Amino acid sequence: MKGQRRRHEVGDVFVLQAADASYRFGRIVKVGESGSRGRFPGGILAYIYDVASDDLQCDLATLTVDRLLMPPFFTVNWPWQKGYFRTVAHEDLEPAHVLRQHCFYDASTEGYVDENDEILRERVEPCGWFALTNFEHFQHELDEALAGRPVFGAHAACR
Question: Which InterPro entries does the UniProt record give (predicted)?
């Protein structure tokens, strides 16, 4: 896909092409700093859904939190600029579009935090990584999820 240089907005729906040549869809649910410590300035919190298509369009009503392919993840503009992701639609977020509680494993504290870097008392599924996702790591998690072996935060075996 051709790269995009644009300002990302909460509610943007994007597409990526999986190894099986199908298109998978994602949504941006937060843009900006992660919290008072701002450990991810300019970061993008996004979801990838288990919704496949042969073309670049999908029924936005199918992009629901019960259809997440993998845990939420933090990224930056790079996947769009290089053409791995392409924004194809925009839909204002409704409460039903967003998980009630985000959870990320924070390796620096060996505990769990939400998207705002606030400590959680316990793990909540789906649990991702509190880190900017590089493309190699993202590709690994995507491939594992598509193969039926999803990777969730630290201690995936405890799932």
Answer: Imm26 (IPR029278)
